[in-house]
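so my prof wants the structure for this chain in the tokens format not the other one, which i didnt know existed until like an hour ago. anyway here's the sequence
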Amino acid sequence: MKPEALLNRPRGLKAAMGVRRSVERVFGDVEVWLGMGGARYRGLEQVKVQVLMTLIVANAKKMAKLLAAKGLPSPNAA
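here's what i got, hopefully its the right format
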């Protein structure tokens, strides 16, 4: 979106779009890189478990990346 278009928008929309961009990026990464483009299983309960496990993995990967950036050892390091 062009900066000129943001001038005519309500106040706070620019900040809201920044938050939306970061949230949509997380879900986009999960969909593309972790296989959430479609459900592997059938049935609501099984799909709930699949989504939960996939998001746990996504959060673990994010934690590992943040720990590595801070120079802290990974939990598996002996």
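also thought this was worth mentioning. The chain has a mean pLDDT of 80.
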